[in-house]
Amino acid sequence: DETQSPPAQETTERNVIVRGSEGDTFTDEIWEEIDSGEPPKWMVLKELMGINIFTYILAALIVISFSLNVLLGPGWLGQAIGMKGVGTFTAPDPVVDLSNSDYLL
Question: 78 exposed, middle or buried (CB, 10 Å; 0-12, 13-18, 19+)?
Fold first, then answer.
């Protein structure tokens, strides 16, 4: 009367060296637990590239500034804070007569 046990599941071993675990083997269940605890790839890329809250704030300010330049035209900020001659062409450039003998080579 032999009882048949279910076939043993094959475990695959990975050749990874972990300090303090010489001679230990990791089963598939342990590897799945390790793999399930890894952070998403996007989080790893953000850390590597140094993207943080300041990067998002700067990107938002750039988008706002470009949008206002398109809507209000160049020089809108200088005019808003009172800088003279910014964004308008009220004063013509002085005309220089290059045919004068002072400018001849």
Answer: middle
Rg value, the chain, Cα: 35
Considering only residues 60 and 27, tell me which one the structure prediction assigns the higher pLDDT: 60
Percent helix / strand / coil, the chain, rounded to 5: 45, 0, 55
Residue 15 is predicted with a pLDDT of 61
Distance separating alpha carbons of residues 30 and 38, to the nearest angstrom: 13
What is the per-residue pLDDT across 5-31, written as a single tens digit (0 to 9) for each?
Answer: 555 555 555 566 566 565 667 778 877
